[in-house]
Write a structure and sequence with these properties.
The chain is α+β, with helices and mostly antiparallel strands and 186 residues long. The protein has two domains: 105 residues, no CATH class; 80 residues, no CATH class. Helix content is 41%, strand content 17%. Strands 1-2-3-5-4 form a five-stranded antiparallel beta sheet, covered by helices on one side. The protein has a two-stranded antiparallel ribbon with strand order 6-7. Helix 1 packs across helix 2 and helix 1 crosses helix 3. The chain is globular, with a radius of gyration of 18 Å. The model has no long low-confidence stretch (mean pLDDT 91). The structure holds adenosine-5'-triphosphate and magnesium ion. The site of adenosine-5'-triphosphate has 19 residues, from strand 2, strand 3 and strand 5.
Length: 186
């Protein structure tokens, strides 16, 4: 058994059962530190108004995201898999309201972040250009098939819908990013 930490989830890997159990991470201290100045200066009502009408759980800087984003990611990951059964998604078998998810165990692709991101950017015409797509730990590669394992975020889901099939078909585990790759800063 192995434990891996992401920003919003902790995964407990159980190779014997070929599954990973994904649990949300909750940041009480950050939520407290972020809400305190708001409550002091403008009151709880203003904070709630801002949280409900301006921010969402997936917004950076929202108090609710420090508390509930892990749960939301789990919940949306399962919902998106159930709804689409998209071939690019590593299957999520079960979710208990986002509190506990059970997903197929991934096999991390042996590719470096630069080569991975270069392919993502090239194949999606620069739509998959964020940090998310340069981290091989967000993917699984088995029998020549690439799948994504971290797909709770609505922005990621958009990319999967539009480019998931193409990414799976065209991804080449051995492709290298040229020295003057199109991605600035690589
Ligand atoms: N099904 C799986 N099989 C194997 N390892 C997994 C699986 N799901 C998650 N992991 C590991 O746990 C880590 C955290 O999971 P995941 O990426 O889904 O969570 P996250 O908190 O949303 O990530 P991030 O930090 O990228 O926002 C992954 O980077 C990966 O190493
Ligand atoms: Mg991740």
């Amino acid at each position: 058994m192995q434990i891996k930490k992401g920003t919003w989830r902790i995964a407990i890997l159980i190779p014997k059962l070929n599954i990973a159990i994904k649990l949300p991470r909750i940041y009480f201290k950050s939520a407290y530190q972020m809400s305190l100045p708001w409550i002091k200066n403008k009151g709880v009502g203003q904070l709630l108004k801002k949280e409900i009408f301006e921010f969402g759980i997936f917004s950076h800087g929202a108090v609710s995201s420090w508390l509930f984003r892990g749960i939301a990611e789990n919940f949306c990951e399962f919902g998106f898999y159930l709804k689409t059964r998209h071939c690019f998604l590593l299957p999520t078998y079960f979710s208990l309201f986002g509190l506990i998810n059970v997903q197929k165990l991934a096999i991390e692709p042996k590719i470096n972040d630069r080569d991975l991101l270069h392919q993502m950017v090239t194949l999606t015409h620069d739509k998959a250009n964020e940090h998310h797509y340069r981290n091989p730990a967000n993917f699984s590669y088995q029998d020549g098939k690439l799948q994504i394992l971290d797909y709770g975020d609505p922005d990621v889901q958009k990319v999967v819908k539009e480019f998931g099939k193409l990414l799976q078909e065209k991804f080449d585990i051995n492709a290298k990013c040229p020295h003057n790759g199109i991605i600035s800063g690589l």
